[in-house]
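Re: guanosine-5'-diphosphate structure - here you go.
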Amino acid sequence: MSGTDLAVQDLNGDLHSLVEGVLDGNQLSLSRLISRIENGAPGYQDAVKVLHEHATGTRTIGITGQPGSGKSTLVDKLVDKLREQGLTVGVIAVDPSSPYSGGSVLGDRVRQTSRNEDPNVFFRSMSARGHVGGLAAATFDVVHAMDAFGKDVILIETVGAGQNEVEIVRAADTVCVVAIPGAGDDVQANKAGILEIADVFAVNKADLDGATATAQELQQMIRIGQDLERSDAGDPADDPDTWVPRVELTVATKGEGVDDLVDAFDDHYAFLEESGELAETRARRFEQEVRTHLGNELDHLADDVVEARRDLLTEDSSVDPYTTSEELVVPFRRAVEEYLRDD
Ligand SMILES: Nc1nc2c(ncn2[C@@H]2O[C@H](COP(=O)(O)OP(=O)(O)O)[C@@H](O)[C@H]2O)c(=O)[nH]1
Ligand SMILES: [Mg+2]
C-alpha cells in the first residue's frame, strides 16, 4: 500500500488554491475547503488525500452527552483553558437536529463568528444534512483538514445519540461524557453503552443539587465495570495498562472544575501514549474510515450494476432477489479473491 501520488497542483479548480491556503494556515481557505467537503464538491476526496500527507496526527477529544447538559458551554471554557496553555484549537460541533430545529445552528453560528475572531481557534458546526459519504466520513475529513492546518487539539462535540454520532465520538482519542445531577437513572439505563465509551465523565451543573451523588454513582459503576473486566483481584488503578475512567465535577457556566477536567484529559492522553493504546486507537479510526469509504464505493457499484442490468432484472420477476444479487456479486467476489491472492 502506498500514499497518494497526487500533489497540490494536481487538484481540481479552486481546490488547489484552497489546499495551499490551508497548508499556509489561512482560516478562510480552511472554512471554504470544509464547505467543499460538506457539499461533496468534485475532487474533494483528492484534496483530503493531499491534506492527509501533511497531517501530523493531532490529538482529538470527543465531548458527548444529552442535549442541554452543557456541552457547548463546557467546550467554550475548554477552548479558553487550552488557549491559555498556548495550544491552537479546532472545534467541530456536530448537530444532527439542525435541519429540523434550526435553533442550535443559529446559536452555533454566533459561536462560530465570535470564536473565529481569535486566529488560533477555528470553530465549525456541521449538520446531518448532505454529506455524500455520510456524516462520520465528513467529520473525519474535517479533522484531517484541521490537522493539516496545524491545530494542536481538536474538540468534537456531539449529542451522542444515534449510530453515526457514536461512531464519530468513539474515534476520538479521549471521550468525555457530560452528565448532569440526577441523571443517575438515565445513566443506569444505558450504563453499558456509556461505560464503554467514556474515558472521562464531567458531572456538569455541579451547582445544582445531587451532583456529588451522581458522581458517586458513576464511580461505583466504573468500579463494577472494572471488576467485571478483571479476573484477578488487583487494584486496576495500580495497573499501568488499565485506564480507570475519571469523574470530574464542573460548573461550565462559571468555568469551575475545567482545570481538573483538562488535567484528566491530559492524564488519559499520557496513558494512551505510554500504554501503546494511542497507536491502536488511531489504527481503529483508520480502519473505520476505510470501511466507510469502501462501503460508499460498493454502494455506487451496486447502483451501477442494478442500473445496467435493469432489463434483465425485471424481465423475469419470478426470480427471487437473493438469487439475483448472488449472481451479480460473482464478478465482485472473484475480483476480491484475485486481489487478496496478489497481496
Ligand atoms: N446551572 C448551570 N447551568 C448550566 C451549566 N452549564 C451550562 N448550563 C446551562 O445549560 C443550558 C444548556 O447549555 P448548552 O451548553 O447549550 O448545552 P448543550 O446542549 O449540551 O450544548 C444553557 O442555558 C447553559 O447556560 C452549569 O454548570 N450550571
Ligand atoms: Mg450544544
